[in-house]
Design goal:
By secondary structure, the chain is an all-alpha fold. The chain has two domains: about 45 residues; about 50 residues. The radius of gyration is 37 Å and the shape is flat.
Amino acid sequence: MDNIVVQRPEFVREVETSAYGVVEKPLTTGEKIFNNAAVRKGILLVLLAVIWQVYATMLANPLLFPKFSETFAAFYENIMNGVLLQRGWFSIKVLLMGYVAGKTPEYFAWHKRRSARLLYRGRTKFLIDLGP
């Protein structure tokens, strides 16, 4: 078979730049505001509060599902008179007491193992057993 070399003609096309319009344009005020993450999250929180309020109003049972406005009013009142802060501090103290009670035996066990290792490293000929 003969090797036939075929040359393709080259094409050069001109691109019209007027069809593309403006590539970079300044953002509108609404786009600048909505590009802020804090604004978007705030809008979402307000939307959730409105949905909560509407649903609680339609349900009309404050024991089952209180309104957002009532919940927020109770929260604000209890923050201002200090009841919520006192109860929150009491909960934190209970958690800390539990943490200390759980970590104290672990600390003494670690200290006991460490003391035994230090005695052994102190060129003592035998490892001193400190008991169970």
